[in-house]
Amino acid sequence: MTGLRGVLFVGLPVAVILGFWLLARWEYRHGRDSHRQSFVARNGWPVVAFVVAAVGFWALVMIVLPQLYMVDFSFHPKLPPSQRGGPRDVYTLENYRYFLFGSTRSTASWNVTHITAFWLTIAVSMCITVLNFVICYPLAYFMAQVGTGSQVRKLMLLLIIPYWVNELLRAFAFNILFGTSGVLNVILLCTGVIASPIDFIGQDIALYSGLTYAYLLVMMFPLYNALESLDHNQIEAARDLGAPWWHVHLHVVMPFAKPGIASGCTLVFMLCAGALAAPLVLGGPKTLWFTPIVYDRFYQAFNWNQGAAYAIVLLLTCILFVMMVMRVFRVSLSEITR
Amino acid sequence: MSARTVQRLMMGFYVVLFFGFLFGPLLVMAVTAVNTAQYPQVLPFEGFTLDWFVVLLDDRNLVDGIRNSILIGVFVVLLSVPLGLAGAIVMTQIYDRARSLYYLVVVSPVLTPGIIIGISTVIFWRDVADSIGSESVYSGLFLATLGQSTFISAYCMLIFLSRLQRFDPSQREAALDLGATHTQVFFHILLPFLKPAVFSAALIAFLSSFENYNTTTFAILADKTLTTVLAGRVRQGTTPAISALAVLIIAITLAGAVLYEVLRRIEQRREQGRAKAAAMAERAEVAGGLAPAAALMSS
């Protein structure tokens, strides 16, 4: 770490903690609520020391500083350790330029492979998000509003059990299903539906259905939680007033479940766009997905700086998506992450 | 047939389809684990065998990976649960002006793709290790623990927050009025109240850590965990031994998930019982007898 960076990364935590402390002092002095005690008076010194140290370490050293450092890192060229901090260690846009235009030696004007993979990842992730919502909504609605207590408990248990199955194993299960001599092909061949095996993996059918499968339950639980708190009388009232069933869902149930829908959509999109296991296991040689490209920056090109730039592109995409969801559904961040 | 019967039939059909999709692939995988065929297949079923499970025991990498996964899981629990608890305490007491920024910072790891957390952790700590000249910081186990705890602490915090919302502050006031110090209130009132949340947070933390791949694959460096060994195997080619391993892992995680669910339901029932007792005590009090004290004792 060079001098400036060192100052930044040591100074920032100190400044943040000082800032919070000053804010707390100020609020305490000028607080409207005169009964309010200061943080220390309310908790006692030992607890305060633990809480401040723990949250300071977590929020700053584990969350904020690594992210900031990654941003800084992505604007530096790849250099051997001996030259880091030397005269060639300057700020550069090279890593981002590479994402858009590729190697300076290539003749194509755009880095077509990476850009296509990027847009395809986003588009497919969005489609899978919508698809997951469509698949989950009827069951979530049934469990939350229609089913009897014992039915719901049984269904819930059946849902919780597969929730924890690792995504690598889910991908592997789909590999067995969809392989050239996989179960699906064997069945189709035996029954005479097809004459020669279908290359599900090469055509990305395996990958897309594997991703849909992997994050199904991530959509289910927030959706169910949101629908569960809807008063069934509202649905009855809408029906009594003559609303057709799709009207009830579109204008009564879904607006109420907005936080749950937003929460499920954000999580599914983020997990899909950031999925690494499924593309590695279910991707064919020509599969385009963004995360394996990021992975290869690290483990094949050994260009960490470029990898950091690619990671930031992905991160920005996810941030934009979250902001978009918050805007479209008019929900706050705390409603999404509940 | 009435419209209602049709509706019910359609719903039943849909539920069967849904759970078929959910369990079908896993069942297929389980069958391939006990089929003697060299390639994971269901049809034709050539014969029942448990050999694929025995093969696993000889695999040194796998045994090392499992050991590391458990080790990291334990460290993650030890780190994430206190961090999550501290995070939740700050959240309930922080000034409104600062709360939204604080919330944004500590919840952001939940919404960040796992590979990005892994990447930023490795990049940051590599240079920290360089600049303080200590190579021991730059170790796979340490970084995997830190990287995973970044977002697992947030899970823990959310669990603690939902429990803290039901905390009755008058309990604290009562203890203080009776002369307890603030530290005593923390250890004798707040922590016991949070105990069930501590257990579920610990279990969730361990499960999340154990099955994590995206963050770990970057943060683990040259070491290996169960998931990274598994990923390597799966990419090399499919053999029934992987199916056998999958069945084992699923069995272990299921045991954890079921345990969690059982504990949660027991706790819920106990809570309901307590609420009922409290309501009864209150009713008795309103009625004006001496019963409340007795009712409280018995609850």
Automatic annotation (TrEMBL), chain A:
TM stretches of this protein: 6-24, 45-69, 117-143, 205-224, 261-282, 308-329
One biological process term in Gene Ontology: transmembrane transport
Membrane topology: Multi-pass membrane protein
One matching Pfam family: BPD_transp_1
UniProt KW Transmembrane keyword: yes
CC terms in the record's Gene Ontology section: plasma membrane
Domain ABC transmembrane type-1: start-end pairs: 118-325
Entries under PROSITE patterns matching the protein: ABC_TM1
Main location: membrane
Subcellular location: Cell membrane
Swiss-Prot/TrEMBL keywords: Cell membrane, Membrane, Transmembrane, Transmembrane helix, Transport
Family: Belongs to the binding-protein-dependent transport system permease family. CysTW subfamily.
Designated name of the protein: ABC transporter permease
Organism: Vineibacter terrae
UniProtKB/TrEMBL annotation, chain B:
GO CC terms, sorted: plasma membrane
Keywords linked to the UniProt accession: Cell membrane, Membrane, Transmembrane, Transmembrane helix, Transport
InterPro entries, sorted: Bact_Polyamine_Transport (IPR051789), MetI-like (IPR000515), MetI-like_sf (IPR035906)
Transmembrane stretches, start-end: 12-34, 70-90, 102-125, 137-164, 185-207, 241-263
Protein's UniProt name: ABC transporter permease
UniProt KW Hydrolase keyword: no
Entry-linked PANTHER family: PUTRESCINE TRANSPORT SYSTEM PERMEASE PROTEIN POTI
GO biological process: transmembrane transport
Membrane topology: Multi-pass membrane protein
Xref: PROSITE patterns: ABC_TM1
Subcellular location: Cell membrane
Membership in a protein family: Belongs to the binding-protein-dependent transport system permease family. CysTW subfamily.
ABC transmembrane type-1 domain location: 66-260
